[in-house]
Specification:
The protein has 211 residues and is α/β, with parallel strands linked by helices. The protein has a single domain, classed as 3-Layer(aba) Sandwich (Rossmann fold), CATH 3.40.50. Strands 1-6-5-4-2-3 form a six-stranded mixed β-sheet, sandwiched between helices. Helix 1 packs across helix 2. It is globular and about 60 Å long. Pathway: Cofactor biosynthesis; adenosylcobalamin biosynthesis. This is Precorrin-8X methylmutase. Keywords: Cobalamin biosynthesis, Isomerase. GO terms for molecular function: precorrin-8X methylmutase activity.
Length: 211
């Protein structure tokens, strides 16, 4: 086994090239509009299964880009995803990144109502009065609450649903995929996902606009 000597500035470029090459060898061709996002997720996870399981509603990437350009904020369900999203790039378009999971009022209300903090966080986010892209990498209850809010007339700009786990994860993602409210989505079917994946998807959109 030979160690490759690659300049630090070339590591990411080389990695993305390897991913594209291996996808070609697997006989997988990704649509032009979603390719950068899927490749960014594979780069984050080293898991090529995402090439088959990531689902995009029609025009989801373009609608997400338009939302960012129009000043949309991003709300996520973990501080890890919050840390990973390029806040500086989003700020260039007037947006901010929020996570309310550690909010004391959210925690108190969730305990009183016997629901998750993620569930209450989505309610709090929906009241911000700004266009929002939701990036959910952990809690399926966040996706369940978003579906309830959509049924009540609320319309997110985009839902990124990549919750990870075993309890209600698959079912919650399907609620978003099968929503009949014309809300754009990027969802990874199945149990896989996570905060890193949610951040990677957000950054794939931001990098399209500014890098």
């Amino acid at each position: 086994m030979e160690i490759k000597h690659i300049l630090p500035s070339d590591i990411e470029k080389t990695s993305l090239g390897i991913i594209k090459q291996e996808l070609t060898q697997m006989g997988k061709t990704l649509p032009d509009d979603t390719e950068a996002t899927v490749i960014r997720v594979i780069h984050t996870t080293a898991d090529f299964e995402y090439a088959d399981t990531m689902m995009f509603s029609e025009g989801a990437v373009e609608k997400g880009l338009e939302a960012i350009k129009n000043g949309a904020h991003i709300v996520t369900d973990t501080n890890m995803a919050l840390s990973g999203i390029s806040k500086k790039t989003l700020a260039r378009f007037g947006g901010e990144v929020h996570c309310f999971m550690a909010d004391e009022e959210v925690a108190k209300e969730a305990k009183e109502r016997n629901v998750t903090r993620a569930y209450v966080s989505m309610e709090k986010a929906a009241k911000l009065g700004v266009p929002i892209i939701y990036a959910i990498g952990n809690a399926p209850t966040a996706l369940i609450k978003l579906k309830e809010l959509m049924d009540e007339g609320y319309r997110p700009e985009l839902i990124i649903g990549v919750s990870v786990g075993f309890v209600n994860v698959v079912e919650a993602k399907e609620l978003i995929i099968n929503n009949d409210k014309d809300v754009p989505y990027i969802v990874n079917r199945g149990r896989k996902g996570g905060s890193g994946v949610a951040a990677a998807i957000c950054n794939s959109l931001l990098y399209k606009l500014y890098r």
